[in-house]
Amino acid sequence: MVKTRSGRIIGNVPGELVNEHVAASTLGLKVTTLRRWRWAGFPHLPFHKIGNAVRYNREDLSDFIKAGRRTSTSCDGS
Q: In the predicted model, what is the mean pLDDT of residues 16-38?
């Protein structure tokens, strides 16, 4: 469960939630890139909307990085 600053519990969210600035830094991207991706819905990178705040799960960020791992430029990731 995650507790908001006001002490409200928002549900069963495993792992630590981070803001978009930390998420962008973790991925080596600009915050504007993450915002564009959320708007476009591509690539699939789950996020949580808590009121007006956007949060990313550290585990989802790690999974996203792992999914992009390739051994060559011709590899499709399969």
A: 96
4's tokens: 């908001």
Count of domains observed in the chain: 1
Report whether 38 contacts 46 (CB < 8 A). Answer: no
Q: Does residue 5 surpass a pLDDT of 70?
A: no
Q: Output the pTM of the full model.
A: 0.75
Yes or no: say if 2 and 13 are a contact pair by the CB < 8 Å rule: yes
Q: Indicate whether 62 belongs to any domain.
A: yes
What 3-state DSSP class applies to 17?
Answer: strand
Q: Residues with Cβ < 8 Å from 57, sequence gap 6 or more?
A: 13, 14, 15, 16, 17, 18, 46, 48
Question: Is the per-residue pLDDT at 10 higher than 60?
Answer: no
For the chain, report the end-to-end CA distance as a whole number of angstroms. Answer: 34
